[in-house]
Amino acid sequence: ARRATMPMTFLHVVVISALVAAALCSHSILDFGGVPNKDNNDAAFTNSRALTKAFMAANSSADRTVLVPADTKFFFFYIEIYNLHNITFQVDGELVISNNITAWPTTLNHVLAALYFADCDTFTIQGSGLIDGQGYDWWVYVFLTTVDNRPHMFTIERCTNLWIHHIYVRNSPQYHYLLMDVKDVVVEDLSIFANITDQKAIMKEHGMLGEGEIPIFPLNTDGIDPSGINVLIRNVTIENFDDAVAVKPQNQGNKYSSCSQNMTIRDSHVKYGVGMTIGSVPPNANVNCIRNITFENITFQDPFKAIYIKTNPGDVGTGLIENILYRNITAVGSIWYPIWIGPQQERQPGTPGTGCNFLFPINEECPTQVRVPIRDIRVIDSSFTNGHTLPGVLLCNSTVPCTGFVFDNVINTGIWDVQQDYWCENVEGTTSGSKPPPPCF
Fold first, then answer.
1. Distance CA 89, CA 84 (A)
2. Integer angstrom CA distances of residue 303 from 10, 271, 356
3. Pair 63, 25: CB distance under 8 Å
4. Dist. CA 439–CA 395, nearest whole Å
5. Confidence (pLDDT) at 202
6. pLDDT category, 86, cuts 50, 70, 90?
């Protein structure tokens, strides 16, 4: 009797094991008609649909993983996915954003992005693969046509419990990661690359590369731009021609927080970037706000800016930037300004506008923002060497000066072709052990 039951028992085990294995299989883009290694419109639209179907299937089944398998390459246009819960996006192969620019939509009901996710909870993006934005063709198109409708690579909006790690992205048409109104986020152990050589060649061809090969028309290829609450970014490597990490404001109209706050960015390396950045922050009727942000243990190689805090023009509403800490920041070979705190440099030479001139302080036109006070900024135990223009710019409004600034053990040395000291106006603060000390403290 015992022998008779053994085959049945074994069969049960085999069947159950097979069912468990099937349940644990990922939803591959290939399972939904994905077409690998084809660079044409039909394949790109097909792959966008296949990827969308994979997410929908994962979101309604026991298996919660969407897979781009290793050793495959998929060209695609864009996807927009809502209301994901407990999903892992595993990119082990290659996703390539289509560079057929005229086939892209010009208007959507949200920020244009190749990978758009909104209203999600518990979402992981990971993998050993690559996402390539083919940014070069988009950048050239902007210069040739003056039409700028570039998508971001990722836009993730109103999501909680987000984990992004161990994935390589490069050459986004615009921002690489735009994280809007998010809560409880970890971004770690990843690399972001924008081809500096290509960008410089484009700018030089169109007269937008100034002295010292400084870009005077940035292409907004930011690395990571978060807004929200409870964000940790660590161990990231970013090489680009724009903001490495730029914390954006929140206001009373946002879901998870009325102020971007409680963020730490640490243990990271930046090459050629335009700063570990706060802002820009324009005034807003709902009060734009950034507070309680820490940048620490950051190294910069040949940055255009390293520390960058910026307001923006506007004459409606108010804003606030407060309690920002930069600690153990090291920058070598600052091309532009090691430290800039004040109005965003956004006015291009030879163009009308109300923004701060790109050539400030050589051109001293740089109106300050009375509606967005900046206070309680601390720079501690930081070193900036081999700079080129001046130690930095600390520029605030005479009616609403910046207050509560602290520079402790900030060593800032270089050639200083423009001036030997900080450009420092309307800032109240203290300094100790710093060289040179800001003269207006």
1. 11
2. 65, 6, 20
3. yes
4. 12
5. 82
6. very high
